[in-house]
Design brief:
Low-confidence stretches: none
CATH superfamily: Exo-inulinase, domain 1
Shape: globular
CATH topology: Jelly Rolls
Oligomer: single chain
Mean pLDDT: 95
Largest sheet: 8 strands, antiparallel
Number of domains: 1
Structural class: mainly beta
Order of helices and strands: HEEEEEEEEEEEHEE
CATH class: Mainly Beta
Radius of gyration: 16 Å
């Protein structure tokens, strides 16, 4: 699959993508299709301009979620984080019986300069605080440049891609998965963290400026 945004206008779908079932999560103009986790309008700290959706530094925009929920899906987007930045994309985001509102996070980080870079499962592309990415395969462009993120969730299998290369794969609910979760900050969640069937897509505002474009999703 070619990297998003290389051969077509940003925030658009080709005829082929439409036939394949892709839909846009960001129209390039406004925040239609997104709310706060509490169901309120997207705060002013998030700005849609020049074809990008940006959480402004110090804007206190908070996290935002897709209005729709997804189970089996393929998600594709481009992100650009500032130096020392920290953000992420969560999926299967929902409210648990115990543990609050949670989602599995594809971590986005300035691996070199951000404060939260001491653990391998906190680096870019990781399943945050649970499973690290394959650093030997990871090729990430530096802060200030665009990277392409892809998440494929099909049944219990989940894959993380960065710039077209698979850097992580796991099976939700497997013994290895449950062992990793048991050592994470999510080990008290009920039901077991990440075993829910569906949830929202969440874009994280973590105090850093982060921009997104070409957000598209396909239901599998």
């Amino acid at each position: 699959m070619p990297l998003a945004g290389r051969a077509q206008p940003v925030n658009t779908l080709t005829s082929k993508e439409k036939k394949q079932g892709w839909t846009l999560l960001f129209n390039g103009i406004n925040t239609t299709g997104w709310t706060t986790p509490q169901g309120k309008p997207v705060p002013a700290g998030w700005v849609a301009e020049n074809g990008t959706l940006t959480a402004k530094k110090g804007g206190k925009g908070g996290d935002i979620i897709s209005t729709n929920q997804y189970g089996n899906f393929e998600l594709l987007l481009d992100f650009n984080i500032e130096p020392e930045g920290n953000s992420g994309v969560k999926y299967f985001y929902t409210t648990y019986e115990k543990g609050g509102s949670l989602g599995l996070e594809y971590q986005i980080l300035d691996d070199k300069l951000a404060e939260d870079n001491k653990k391998d499962n906190h680096l870019t592309g990781s399943f945050y605080d649970v499973i690290p990415p394959d650093e030997s395969r990871k090729k990430v462009n530096p802060p200030g440049q665009w990277n392409t993120l892809r998440i494929v969730a099909n049944g219990k299998q989940v894959q993380h891609y960065l710039n077209g290369v698979k850097i992580l794969e796991f099976m939700r609910g497997s013994p290895a998965y449950m062992e990793a979760v048991s050592h994470s900050k999510f080990n008290k969640a009920v039901p077991a963290f990440g075993t829910v069937e569906k949830g929202h897509i969440l874009l994280q505002e973590h105090g850093s400026e982060i921009s997104f474009k070409n957000l598209k999703i396909k239901v599998l």
